[in-house]
Structure prediction request, 508 residues.
Amino acid sequence: MKNIKLFFKNIKKYNKYAIRSAKAELKSEVADSYLNWLWWIIEPLCFMLIYVFIFSVVFENDTPYFASFVFIGLAAWDFFNRMLSGSVKLIMSNRGLVSKVYIPKYILLLSKSYTYIFKWFISLIITFVLMIFQGVPFSFHILFIIPIIIILYILSFGIGMILMHFGVLFNDLSNLIKIVLRMIFYLSGVFYNIRERLDGVLQYVLLRGNPIAFCMDELRKVMLEVKFPSFEGLAVWLLIAITINIIGINIIHKNENSYAKVI
Amino acid sequence: MKKDKNIAITVKDLHIYYKGLSKNSIRASWTKFNNKVEVFEALKGISFEVEEGKILGIIGKNGSGKSTLLRAIAGIFSPDKGSVNLHNNTISLLSIGVGFNNKLTGYENIYLSGMLLGFSESEIKKKEKEIIDFADIGDFMYKPVKTYSSGMHSKLAFAITAILETDIILIDEVLSVGDAKFKKKSYNKMKELISDDKRTVLIVSHSLDTIKELCNEVVWLNDGKIVKVGKPKEIIKEYEKFMEI
Prediction:
């Protein structure tokens, strides 16, 4: 309990630092390039065009509003994927900082998460433009993306903290995570609708046991299908996410000042 | 509240081990599961106090635990046993290659380092020009830190820590960086900082002349233990004898 209190105190204290660091990092990613910040739009847009081409022309697909469908899933996946794969090497890549000054280690993750959430936000704007373009009917259900995004954020943050810790101890953890993430990617229904393509046990397990598949499906429900999200599902995943965060916070607090000795 | 003599740093029975958390591959951690973990004890029970405004020198041969001690005081290492109490003072560690984010510009790093030292953005803004002038690295200030030479790196690091004055400054072998001109400038700045009788300074250096000139007191470390504490002149004399053998 003490650790949780300290966690919120630290978040408050270092939030400005995290924001500033995230902004600086976003700027540095595009500095000195000819198209500059346009890359933030061009990159996701091009990826989407490629995937839509492959999956609607090469593998025929009749899912309604397929481009929007893919893009909603892909944007959520990108966020989840970046959070998890980014956190594994986070301490190592900040070695210079970690070995020279005290900083609560989850602040590094917080700062990184701001850059990822910013990118997701841009993708969402592009998605909205695309949805207007495709004539998707808009309704108030779309507002439910906010709790879904928040839950996915909290969950990724918790898993990220735990991966960050074990990433310090095992230098080949990133290889393993890469494989696991690739597997989850194909089991998340980025390019297909799990509810239509799969049935029976597999559908049941994926939509309930795979958080990213679940969040993607809920996002599509509220954005494309004018439906309410599954409130029980969201509540359960919120509880799981909070539990994982509590575990993560405790692990980090217990070990964070030993990282500098290892790296 | 505080005692009549204001104590800035209290170190009590400080032990630091390098063990337990060791870097491994996943496979190795299975096979080595039953092996004993090698423990290296870098500090073996160190206790001392530093009064506010005092300048403490730390001497000892390589590997005696000097830098480990500074890092533990700075809060980068957690004590495995014992404690470090800073009595709510702000602290900064000045060492070769201060923690910068290499991808970002020097200018951004001024703010980020400053904020980690506990200053607000507006406080840093006020001192920004002074830091840039003191660092004196020209247009490189607006280029990523990874493009810096090691000299520029330490110039900027020194400028940030020296201008944003924390209550306690820990100095790890930085008095000998930069070109001759900067060396002189930083030495003078250091003296100015030190002469403030509110500021507590800990210096680790192999330059005994520097220690003799700047410090009020010296701690001599050997093999993670304190050999002697006392006036610089006497301790350094003994230390020099010890090193000759």
